[in-house]
Amino acid sequence: YKRDPQHKRARPAKDFPHILYPGTKWCGTGNAAEDLNDLGPLKALDTCCRDHDLCPDDLEPGQSRHNITNDTPFTMTHCDCNKAFRTCLKAEGSDAAHEVGVAYFSTGLFQCYRLAPPTEGCAKWAGLLTQACQEYKFSTTGELRWQVFDMATYE
Signal peptide position in this chain (predicted)? Predict the structure, then answer.
């Protein structure tokens, strides 16, 4: 499984535009960095995005692992990495970090995966572009299994 940072977060689809948040080299679709230490002027924000891009457990489009296949045009990341990304953005605290957080977490376009009890449905829905489950109902019985989850909106 290749961890080359130049191949991480390649364009998510053939004709999908390469978009980066101004002042960053890692926040967006793909990256424009020469190497791992190459950060844009918004260094703290870019560090959050770089670390998220280099999550050690993710699924590129079309890739399968943990009995999950990523059939979206975007990289799907382990939920623990998304939790760390959200925490980093909140700690960075700038308006730019908030905008990146909203773009990533609140659009309803991205999902994550983790080992969890079986889901029984969604208790709460929200999202900007599409409706995403914000709160899941979990079974109190059954073995843990790998599952895909929508992400909670960024506030």
Answer: none
Q: How far apart are CA 5 and CA 137, in angstroms?
A: 36
Rounded CA-CA distance 70/59 in Å is: 6
pLDDT at 17: 66
Report the alpha-carbon distance of residue 61 to residue 140 in Å, rounded.
32
Domains within the chain, CATH numbers bracketed? 1-109 (1.20.90.10)
pLDDT at 106 over 70: yes
State the residue for tokens 């770089």. Answer: 50
How many residues are recorded in the chain?
155
> Rounded to two decimals, what is the model's pTM?
0.86
Q: Give the C-alpha distances (Å, rounded to integers) separating 92 from 30, 54, 104, 126, 132.
A: 21, 18, 16, 25, 25
Rounded to the nearest integer, the mean pLDDT of the chain is 88
